[in-house]
Amino acid sequence: MQRSSSRAGLLLAAFVVLFVTACRDELPTAPGEDLFPRGTRAATHVLELPVGAFLQEIGRFTGYTSPRDAGYLLVADRFDEGLIAHSLARFTGFPTSVTYSVGGVSQTDSVFVYGAGQLVAPVDTAASAAAGEVQFQLWSLAEPWDPASVSWQRATDTTGVQIPWSVPGGTRGQLLSQVTWPPGDDLPRDTLSFALDSLTVEAMAAADFPGVVVTVNGTPARFQLRRMTLRTTVHPASRPDTTLAQTIAEGPQTFIFTPEPPQTGDSWYVGGVRSARVLFRVDLGRRFPCPAATGVAPCATAGDSLRLFDVALNQASLLLQPLPVPGGFRPLRPADLVLRRVGEPELGRQAPLGDPISQVTVPPDRFAAATDSTVAIPLIGYLLRLPASDTTALSVALLAEPEGGAFGVARFAPQPRLRLVYTLPLTRVSQ
Prior knowledge:
- By secondary structure, this protein is mainly beta.
- It folds into two domains: 6-62 and 262-428, no CATH class; 68-258, no CATH class.
- Helices cover 5% and strands 44% of the residues.
- The protein is built from three helices and 30 strands.
- It has helices at 6-14, 198-205, 380-385; strands at residues 16-20, 40-49, 55-61, 73-79, 83-89, 98-102, 105-109, 112-122, 129-130, 134-141, 154-157, 162-164, 172-181, 191-196, 212-218, 221-225, 229-236, 244-248, 253-258, 268-271, 277-283, 288-289, 305-306, 312-320, 335-342, 353-362, 375-378, 393-400, 409-412, 417-428.
- Strand 17 (229-236) and strand 18 form a beta hairpin.
């Protein structure tokens, strides 16, 4: 048995150690008859290691996804005194001819006129919040934009071309329609329906129409929308009394926002529209001081030290302290966090992700205001599968999945703790 050094003695002062003595002969997490020497009693201990005792941060990274990768749209106004977001859309796939039936005979007409229509935007109410009544407004865009690179400041932002908006957030043209939310009692709250006249629909069908932008104003709000569709009607010139329904869903849709999400600073940010993640190493071979001399190995005398594999682990968790998220970027729905192994951690932001080790779902209220609660990510299942000879460092990434699947970002203090509940042989008993 190795003796602890003076360094281990210093670490002991930083450890939070609680003792719970158990007198059971069999432990549910310690199978086998020969785990401890025959004739010993068992004691269970709780140990919390501070970040410096077991963890080395590799880096904090972001920018893996963008709004164009998201499966949702966003509209916001001064949410949490910060976020403003607009949704952009350009519809394509308008018909060049229409087909209808007369007396059972199919007819095709390339000349037709549009009737009135509706732009429909489903609302994800579970991922939306407003302080009160708001007005959604649908505007025409006055300038073309590049769906792959558009941002709050620039309509196009490619390697060779940077074209700023004349007005940041998308240069608006004509106000086309507006909707009040929440609507009246007889209308659904999970759908926005913008009424459009026939001239507007005809203008939207033109090849050079730049598109539309959806904004919101009134009380501070953040709304997550699903993909928008345009529903309209057409009337063939040869049969003006015939009305044919059309649904237009093709074309690019995305959103732009300001400011940008929090990056790194003094916190760990995880998830969000940019898919922030944190990479770090956990030292599995680190020794820690025995809680007390037990008279039985591995803690036979005062000053002895332990490894993870010298004890029967009952629980092991990474404890994170959630923090309020500034700027309007807090999650509005539960955050699904995943801890994954990382191959080649020296590659930093390009390090490939491996299999998941653990995952946990965190309620959104943990990030809305300061709280004393902690988030525990279980590690016991992974550690129990490791061979006792494995003393290498474990490189992992903490991220949210699916990446880019939610706009809100989780925030944690960068000083996690490792909590271990383990069992040791205590003292020999008479045979």
